[in-house]
Every structure is written in C-alpha cells, then in structure tokens.
Design a protein that fits this description.
Elements: H1 2-26, E1 32-36, E2 39-42, E3 45-48, E4 57-59, E5 61-62, E6 68-69, H2 75-85, H3 98-101, E7 112-114, H4 116-119, H5 143-152, H6 156-162, E8 176-183, E9 186-193, E10 196-199, E11 202-203, H7 215-227, H8 238-246, E12 249-253, H9 262-271, E13 275-279, E14 300-309, E15 320-331, E16 337-343, E17 348-353
Parallel strand pairs: 4-9
Antiparallel strand pairs: 1-12, 1-13, 2-3, 5-6, 7-10, 8-9, 10-11, 13-14, 14-15, 15-16, 16-17
Helix pairs in contact: 5-8
Amino acid sequence: MDELTNFLKQAGKEFLNVAGDAAVGAAKEVVGSVINEIFIKKEADTKRVLPSIKNMRVLGERGSGTRVQADIQDFDAIRSMCLANGSLFEDPLFPANNESLLFSQRPDRHIEWMRPHEITDDPQFFVEGYSRFDVQQGELGDCWLLAATANLTQDPNLFFRVVPPDQNFEENYAGIFHFCFWQYGKWIDVVVDDRLPTYRGELMYMHSTEKNEFWSALLEKAYAKLHGSYEALKGGTTCEGMEDFTGGVTEWYDLKEAPQNLFNILHKAVDRNSLMGCSLEPDPNVLEAETREGLIRGHAYSITKVCLLDIAVPNRQGKIPMIRMRNPWVMRPNGMVRGVIVHLNGVIYRKIKSRKSV
C-alpha cells in the first residue's frame, strides 16, 4: 500500500508540472486576472486560511526541469550553526554558479555573485518599510512574478507570511535568509544565502529603487531556487505567483467576454484584500510591442487601485469606473515610473508620470 501511495503522489506531482506548463500557454489568450483568498465559512463568520509557521514544511530543491526534493534545510538551525562558527552561509543546494542562473545556455558575460555588504556600505532588508516601489525588474523576463510581488506588499498579513520579519543584516546576521511559499497544498520554507548575481557591481535581476534594500532581490532568489534556476522563472502568469504567495485560488476574466458586473467584482475583490493583475494580448510579430497609449503587450501589470472617479469626459456624466495599473518594468532614464489610469472598457484617460504615485 505504501508503494502505491508513493507512486500516486509522484504521478500527481508530474501532472501538476505539466498542467503548470500548459497554463503558461493558455495565459496568452487571457487579458485579466483576479485572485481571491481561500475562506472558511463558519456560521455567519468568515475567516481567512493562513496556516501557522509551525505547520510549515521546509524544503530545498535544485536542478531544472524536474523537481527533486533535496535535504531539509532548517533556517534557525543553520543560522545558529553559522553564528557559532563565525561563518556566512553558503547554500550547497543552490550554489553561486552558472547552473543556478541558466539551464539552457551559458552566460554571455562574467557574472559575479556578491553579498549585499559587498555591493553597498549599508545593506538593509527593509528601507523605511516596504512597498510596491521596492519591486523593479532587471534583465530576467519574470514580470509576472514582479507584478505578484508588488501586489503582495498591499496586504501586511500576506506579506509577512511570505517574507518573515525575523531577518536583517545586523542582529544575528549569518548570510542566510528564508521565504515561505504555498506549494502542493502546503506552506514551505525556502532557505537561501545572500549571494546575488551582479554585473559590474549592479544587481542583474529584481531589485529595489533603494540601492541598499534587498528583500525583493532575496525573495526572487528563493523563488528561483524553488523552481531550479533563475532562467526557470522566464515566462509565467501573475496568477501563478499570487497563488504561491497566498494559498488562494484564481479567477480569470477575458475582457472580450467580461461579465457586465466586472467592475463590481473587482471592487469587492479590493474590499476583501484580494490581489489583482492584468495584461494585454501579445503581438505575435513584435516582442513587447508598445501601444500608442503606452501599454506594453504581453507584459504583466499590477492593479493597484479600483475606484469611481468624478472627472470631465466628453459626452459622459457621473462617476466613471477606473482601474490604476503599474508596470514594474517601465523605468525611464530619469527615474520616473510610468503608469496609467484606465477606464474599465480599456480607454486611456490619463497617464501618470510620477515616481511614487502608481
């Protein structure tokens, strides 16, 4: 019976892997997504399911293509050992080498793995708290993950479930950090060291607008470890990331066939602290084509606000349903982040060119 049970469990994991790959292809036909958290209804009361840290599993994984569970890594035990030895943690399951970066090719330049204190004189896990502006895209094509990460910052309960606050670069620093993700029906704790890929002293991938803030870069590294490499994060859906950050389920809406009450659905989702994102269908002929309104096709956006606005619009009276979107990739040379406020039917009414307003 045990052999049969193990076989069925492994078969289930393989099925989920295949389904995940198929979901990436299906995502190209979807232009909107909403994630709702799991709720348990108990009489007239509704409570969010957020397992305690005690119920979490710890996991380490390596390799690409096939997920193979490796040795268990306990954050507290490893940190205590490093502090006792006076050493900084070096993760043997996700080493600082090319295998952790790419699986299909070799880097086209020399990549140096550096710890934050080698990049800046004053590394911080958080700089004046955390916000969606701490999430900026680098060279990796994982905008879907960045959109989900930016959304995560809007709910403190969810954020600190994924990003445990018991870590910093000062007290009890040992070069080790950990993050929690929802996988196969369980919360797991992923441990990483703080060696990050850089080129000419600059972080290559996810980073903060603050040069000495590193929580987002380390979160991306932990997620890359979970999937086998940084390259494994290239291409995906925002819903995948939001599910892994919340343990919730997703709802998809194609705006070509959207229900008439879609705005009410979005508005209620905001009231429930749901995470939301959207995207435009990609142009098959042009990679990341930009529309005349400034939107990038095939790119993931965070929805940062849903509201009714009183604005002057020709041939229109009353309040207009609007959504505010943010693209963490669109960073202009002058340091300004460009975003948009959009009418629900897709008409662009206003562009935002303010560093911290989107």
